[in-house]
Amino acid sequence: MRALVVDDSRAMRTILTRILRRAGVDEVSEASDGKDAIARLDGAALPDFMLVDWNMPNMNGLELVGALRHHPQWRGITIVMVTTESEQSQIVRALAAGAHEYVIKPFEEESLIEKLAILGFGLQETLADGTEPMGQEAYSP
Amino acid sequence: MAVATDQFQFVRQLVQTRTAIVLGEDKKYLVDSRLAPLARDLGFGDADAVVQHLRRVPNLALEQRILEALTTNETLWFRDRQPFEALASHVLPQLVQRNAATRQLRIWSAACSSGQEIYSLAMLLDEQFPELRNHWHVDLFGTDFCTEMVTRATEGLYSTLEVNRGLPASLLVRYFDREGANWRLKPHVRSRARFGTMNLAGPWPPMSAFDLVLMRNVLIYFDVPTKERLLKAAGNQLAPGGYVLLGAAETAVGLCTDLTPVRLGDAVFYSAKGPRS
Amino acid sequence: MTMLTNEAVTEITQEIWAALLASDGSSPLLPGDLYSGEVIAEVHISGEWNGTVRLSCSQVAARHATAAMFSMGDDEVTPADVADAIGELVNVVGGNIKGLVEAPSALSLPAVREGGSPALLGQLELAQEVRFSWMAEPVVVGVWAEAT
What we know:
The complex is a heterotrimer of chains A (141), B (277) and C (148).
Chain A: E1 2-6, H1 10-22, E2 27-31, H2 34-41, E3 49-52, H3 61-69, E4 78-83, H4 88-97, E5 101-104, H5 109-118
Parallel strand pairs in A: 1-2, 1-3, 3-4, 4-5
Chain B: H1 5-19, H2 28-42, H3 47-56, H4 60-71, H5 82-98, E1 104-110, H6 116-128, E2 137-144, H7 147-155, E3 157-159, H8 160-163, H9 169-175, E4 176-179, E5 182-185, H10 187-190, E6 193-197, E7 210-215, H11 224-236, E8 238-246, E9 259-264, E10 267-272
Parallel strand pairs in B: 1-2, 1-7, 2-6, 7-8
Antiparallel strand pairs in B: 3-5, 4-5, 8-10, 9-10
Helix pairs in contact in B: 1-3, 2-3, 2-4
Chain C: H1 6-20, E1 30-31, E2 39-47, E3 51-57, H2 59-70, H3 79-98, E4 105-107, E5 111-114, E6 124-134, E7 137-146
Helix pairs in contact in C: 1-3, 2-3
């Protein structure tokens, strides 16, 4: 599985990359703003999903989401916004622009993994052994 | 200080015996991070110390606190997801059809904590069963042992960290209003539910029959005879055609012959067998 | 009625500390008395509401926080790491405090300074200050706002 983390804060990129790697994402790349993200996508293998901050120089997260959704090759990438911006109207705008999910900072590691799971990316969740999420597999009557 | 290997293995064994959850060898960091705050709250030096204490002085209360710290799944909204999907696609349509004449639906969340489970149901019903908004009496009843939790549930106010846990953003904007750094469930959803304090292990007050009883991740705190008693009581509390739902890693099989497991969607529900006394 | 209360600032900071620095189950932010300006990080809020959020702490606290955030040892932490970590902390604290005041407003990039005296905040006055003790070190969050 492949992911692209887009945030102008090196600290947040480090945190997110660590969380994703720990959850079993094989390849995690980083970009420092929208423009950098586009440059990295150009000609590269498509990420399965992207974590995108809102407030970034050069091209902010909302603009990036719009750009991705209008691009023939990139419009299918799952986008999760990860940001402190928490006005209801902003969340609505982000979802309308094409973001699939929205995580408000601060968030816990498990919350991010769960949001990705809701989107269909079954990553290693909480305390379950192996890669199966804790579920009915434990008992089959 | 992190737990030593001995303590980690002890914890793995305890968790597996009591909850059937298998803790991988690589999950030591989670054990450390979950037990450190508990150790602090209880006045132990660190995670290792609290486990060592339990090993030296076995006591059920501490065991329960440790289990709770380890097994509290952070995804509190729509916990485990599959049961809610099964409720939406299979169970609720069935119940709604069955109750078409009476136009009543009664659901009980036993061990409702701060309300996420019952409110998840309220949102699910509002979104996917809008016909129930009119002319139906929908009773969403939540009880918890802890009065503080019941008060919290009634308030319907949640922090940023809490609304991040398992709640799709589309539902957040539709059903919550932001209040400073917190989020409050909109009045029309809050008013769908009622809450009360109740000790499951004590005598149950008289209650109406329920179409759905959720008793999720609370049985793990009780010994086997109590589990059996509670499961039987839950079965007795069901209306005809009703179901009991347990936690994702729990089972009533082997504990209660009155309940029959039924696989609906990707989840297992329990129906009450035959006439009940 | 303002949402910018001492309680709100306290809750916000504690949640952020727990979420961002939880990697090793580190200690919570407890109420404290002391102030340290050894490391000062700021973000400015401008728009419908104008003000500054400042996070001040001791060098030791800054190093601990950085180490916790990046899951590294205290001794591996570089000044650049501290700037990034503390900058992100004040960014998230500021972002959440922005949610308490009039919208729409924008958040500046964080600025982090070690040592020296903090920039004067001119027309602003201290609206809220919460002092914490973290791992026995001072951590303080101050919110400066336009005089009313």
